[in-house]
Design brief:
The chain is an all-beta fold. The protein has two domains: 36 residues, no CATH class; 75 residues, no CATH class. The chain is 0% helix and 41% strand. The protein contains no helices and eleven strands. The strands form three sheets. Strands 5, 7, 8, 9 and 10 form a five-stranded antiparallel beta sheet that branches. The radius of gyration is 21 Å and the shape is elongated. The chain starts with 9 loop residues before the first strand and ends in a 7-residue tail after the last strand. InterPro entries: Ubiquitin-like_dom, Ubiquitin-like_domsf. It comes from Coprinellus micaceus. This is Ubiquitin-like domain-containing protein.
C-alpha cells in the first residue's frame, strides 16, 4: 500500500477508549498530554465476500463473474488473483472466467482449481499529504 495505512483502517485507543476521527478529533480535544500512551492498530476489514458456484448435477458450466466498484473503493484482496481495470463509473472492475462443476470445483481460465471466488475492498481515502 502506498502512502501508509488508510484513514478508514486506522484505530487509536487512549485510556481504553477508541478515539473518533473527524475535523474536531485533535490530541487537545481528547485531553492527550505529552508522555501519554496511544495504541495504534489496523482495524479488521469486516465481512468476507465469497461466491460459490454449484451447477446442476451432470453439467459443467462456463461462467463469467464481473465485479465493479464505485470510485471511493478499491480491491484489497482477490482470490484467485485476476487483473483489475477501470470501470465505466471510474472505479475498479474485475472479471473471473471459470468452469464450474457440480462438486463446487471451479477451474479458473489460467488452469488454477479453486472452490470459491473471494474479494475484499477498502476505502480509497488516505491521510492528507501522503
Amino acid at each position: 500500500m502506498e502512502g501508509g495505512l488508510e484513514v478508514g483502517c486506522q484505530r487509536l485507543i487512549f485510556n481504553g477508549e477508541r478515539l473518533q476521527a473527524g475535523p474536531q478529533a485533535t490530541l487537545q480535544a481528547a485531553d492527550i498530554q505529552d508522555g501519554d500512551g496511544l495504541h495504534f492498530f489496523k482495524a479488521l476489514t469486516g465481512a468476507k465476500h465469497v461466491i460459490y458456484l454449484f451447477p446442476p448435477a451432470g453439467t459443467d458450466v462456463e461462467a463469467t463473474v464481473k465485479l465493479n466498484l464505485i470510485p471511493e473503493w478499491k480491491f484489497s484482496v482477490l482470490y484467485p488473483v485476476v487483473p483489475t481495470s477501470a470501470s465505466s463509473a471510474g472505479g475498479q472492475a474485475l472479471e473471473w472466467n471459470v468452469k464450474a462443476s457440480p462438486s463446487g470445483t471451479l477451474l479458473e481460465n489460467t488452469g488454477l482449481e479453486v472452490s470459491y471466488l473471494f474479494w475484499e475492498v477498502s476505502r480509497r481515502q488516505t491521510l492528507r499529504g501522503r
